[in-house]
C-alpha cells in the first residue's frame, strides 16, 4: 500500500518537474512516507525525521514533508512538535501535495492535510504518466477498512472502506500493460469485500474475471484477503483464470480460537484450515502465505502452542510474524493480560524458527523442478544475476542477460534457501514446461 502511494507521489511530482534522486543531499524536497501499523514502524519514521533536524538547519531551503499513516494519526500536532517539518500529508492527501508545495513556496505557510476523501483522484487514469512502471505494478482497487480487528489502527488512519470503480481499474491496468507491465497486483485491505455497497458494481471475483481479459496481461495477484470473506466464487477463480497466480496471502493472526475471538477476526481455527483444504482442492499447486501476531493481550502458553500447531497443519509457504504492539485508539489497547516483552520476543523466535524449517522444506521440494519465472530485474545478490518470481511468488535468482527482463522463462531450480531459490535458465525446456504447466494448472 505504501509503495503504491510512493509511486503515485513520484508520478504526481514528476508532472511538477521534480525528479527522484538517490542521495538526500541533492534533494530540494524530502518526503517521508510512513506506516503506523506497528509501533516499531512509527518509531523508525520519527527517528529518521529527527536526523533531518540538523540537515534542515544547514539547508533551511530544503522542504521536509511527512506523509502516510503517521501523518494521518498525529496531524497538525506534528507541526507544533517539530519545527523543522514543513508539510504533513495524510493518507488521502497525495493529490494535494503540488498545491501545498506551491502555497509553501509563496507564503512559507507550514500545512497539514488530514481529511478523508474518496475520489481516487491521485490514482492514475492512464493518460498522464511520468513515472516508469517496472515489470510488475500495483493497482489500488479500494481504500480503508471497516473490519476493526481489535489490534489494528488501519481503519483509524486509512478511513472507511471504499471501492474504486471497476471501469477505472480496468483503464489503469490496460494502460500499464501498454507501457510494458506484465503483472499487476490488485491492492486493498480486504479485497474480498470489493464492490460491496456500490450499486451495480462487480464483486471481487467479477473484477478478477474482467482484469483477466486484459490483452497482454500475463499475471494477476491480489492482496489482502480476509479469511472470513473468502467464498467459493473467488476460490473458483484460481481454477478458471489462467493469468491468476496460484498464490494467496491469507492472514490467520493466531491459531487459538479464544485469541481469534478477542481479535474480533470473525472465524475459527477450523474454518481457516477448512479454507486451505478447499483452496488446495481447487488448485493443488496454490501457495499460501500468512501473517501471525504473537503476544496479543491474554495470549497464554496454550494459545501460543496452538499457533505453533496451526503452522504445522497449515504448512504455509511463507509467514510474516510480528510481536503485538499497542496502537492508539484500538480496542486491544484497553484489554487486560498484556504479555511481557521478553515473552513476546521468545515466542516470536520460536515461531519464526519453526516456519523457517517449513519454508525451507517447501523450497527444497522445488529443487529439480522447472518453473515459469517472470524476470523482474537485477538480483539483490549482485553480479550479473537476475531475479524473478515463480507463479507461487517464490523468488528465484539465476545468471542471465538483461534482455530477459520482462520475459516469462523456464528456470530449473538447483538450490533452495530459506527465502529464495537458485536456478539455471533452460530455454530448451519450453516444451516440457508446457506439459508441467498443463498438468499442474486446473488442480487435476
Ligand atoms: N489488511 C490486512 C493487514 C494489514 S496490517 C489484513 O487484514 O490482514 C498487516 C499486518 O500487521 C497484519 O496482518 C497483522 O499481522 C500485523 N499487525 C497489525 N496490527 C498489529 C499490531 N498492533 N501489533 C502487531 N502486529 C500488527
Ligand atoms: Fe486491520 Fe483487520 Fe482491516 Fe486488516 S482487516 S486492515 S487487520 S482491521
Q: CATH superfamily name of the largest domain? A: tm_1862 like domain
Strand order of the largest sheet: 13-14-15-17-16
CATH domain fold name of the largest domain: pyruvate-formate lyase- activating enzyme
Instruction: Report the strand count.
Output: 17
The level of helicity is 25-40%
Overall number of structural domains:
3
User: Mean of residue pLDDT?
Assistant: 91
Distance between the termini: 35 Å
Supply the CATH architecture of the largest domain.
Alpha-Beta Horseshoe
SS-based class = alpha/beta
Ligand species: S-adenosyl-L-homocysteine, iron/sulfur cluster
Strand content bin: 15-25%
Q: Give the class-level CATH name of the largest domain.
A: Alpha Beta
Low-confidence stretches: 431-444
Cα radius of gyration in angstroms: 23 Å
The helix tally amounts to 14
Could you name the key traits of this structure?
444 residues, alpha/beta, Rossmann fold, pyruvate-formate lyase- activating enzyme, OB fold (Dihydrolipoamide Acetyltransferase, E2P), four-stranded parallel β-sheet, 17 strands, 36% helix, globular, disordered C terminus, binds iron/sulfur cluster
Structure description:
With 444 residues, the protein is α/β, with parallel strands linked by helices. The protein folds into 3 domains: 2-113, Methylthiotransferase, N-terminal domain (Rossmann fold), CATH 3.40.50; 136-363, pyruvate-formate lyase- activating enzyme (Alpha-Beta Horseshoe); 370-442, OB fold (Dihydrolipoamide Acetyltransferase, E2P) (Beta Barrel), CATH 2.40.50. The chain has helices spanning 2-14, 39-58, 69-74, 77-81, 97-107, 154-158, 166-178, 204-211, 232-240, 257-263, 269-282, 301-314, 341-364, 430-440, and strands at 29-34, 63-68, 87-89, 111-113, 136-140, 142-143, 162-163, 183-187, 219-223, 247-249, 287-294, 318-323, 370-378, 385-389, 395-399, 408-416, 421-425. It has a 5-stranded mixed β-barrel. A 4-stranded parallel β-sheet has the order 1-2-3-4, with helices on both faces. It has a 3-stranded parallel β-sheet with strand order 5-8-9, with helices on one face. Strand 11 (287-294), helix 12 (301-314) and strand 12 form a beta-alpha-beta unit. Mean pLDDT is 91; it is low at 431-444. It binds S-adenosyl-L-homocysteine and iron/sulfur cluster.
